[in-house]
Amino acid sequence: MKIGINALAMRGQGSFGVKTYFDNIVRRWYADSLVDCEFVLFSSTIPEWWDGNRRNFILVHLPIAKNLLLRIFCEQLILPRLSKNKELDVLFHIGYVGSLLSNVPQIVTIHDAYAWICQKEVGFLRTFYWQLLIPPSLKKSRRIIAISRNTASDICHFCDLDESKIKVIPLAGSHLSDISPDNDILDKLKLKSKSFFLCVGFYAPIKNTRRILEAYQNYRDKSANDQAKKLVLVGGALSQWSLETLDIAKQIPGVIIAGRVSDAELVALYSHSAGLIFTTLYEGFGIPILEAQGLGCPVVTSSLSSMPEVVGSGGILVDPTSVSDIAKAMFQIENPEIAEQLVTLGYRNQDVYSWDRVSRETLEVLLDLDIAFTNET
């Protein structure tokens, strides 16, 4: 069986989750040298882990797809021709949109419903592109992979799909477990273990950063100054709103802006944090929840979208629109007994998720599609 992988969705701002997904499933296929499968990877960038073409795994580099418009050109006009020339049995799209003109059986992974729920975050052009092409892509696809039950429900609602066509394959957070922590980040930021809360993700309205800052200010105002924990912000600024939010953060005592950090530094921060504050307004999945749970970090997260299904019983759920709810949760995870219970339940929950399972189940969907298509013909 010859499988094409369209990885053009990795490029651009906001593609961090898609890249994590791609790296943790496709790298396993690349490393396993699967005897019965051949892979053709279409990508505008060369993966960091790429070590050259192999007998059953080749890269077709498409650097032309360097922005959204050129990506659309490649996906809709170039990929169909390449898929035919490479005699693919299945074309797997890792993010959102398929190739409408291709006659090769296709599978598309949907990560969220941002195009309908978070249009301001996505921007006009990408919203238009997704709303125009996602529905026909999904209707043309033989199967659809959704990364959470909530995302599957959202996509069925917005795209008028039959739910039986969707296979839910939840993601994982175990990719950080084998990385040694770089504890120098603690010295760099002048942090002691368990003396700080952690907030991760790029700064945007959907990430609820300003309410988190307001909640932290309320928490700090009600705490004895020598007992209040600090709040460490990890992530990048992608917009003017983000920069203005960072200016607000700089005015609040106890807030530390770490910016972007390496994976090893992130492991150290999770491991030594008193709690992850991940109270966003919408997530297709919520990988940081599992990252934190796997590293023994208590979790506070939102009662909306996919987050309750991902966190299980290993976290405190809050109304993300309520500043007082978020502040109350900060006080709760200061309690050693509550924190210890959350860590125990978090480990138990995180064990259910693994990238080996995601990779295996995704490949099974691709192989099953080829069998079904062969039987039809």
Automatic annotation (TrEMBL):
Q: Where is the Glycosyl transferase family domain?
A: 190-337
> Its GO biological process terms?
lipopolysaccharide biosynthetic process
Q: Name one GO molecular function term.
A: glycosyltransferase activity
Q: Which UniProt keywords apply?
A: Transferase
The residue ranges of the Glycosyltransferase subfamily 4-like N-terminal domain are 58-170
Q: Name one Pfam family in it.
A: Glyco_transf_4
- Keyword Zinc assigned: no
**What name appears for this protein in its UniProt entry?**
Glycosyltransferase, family
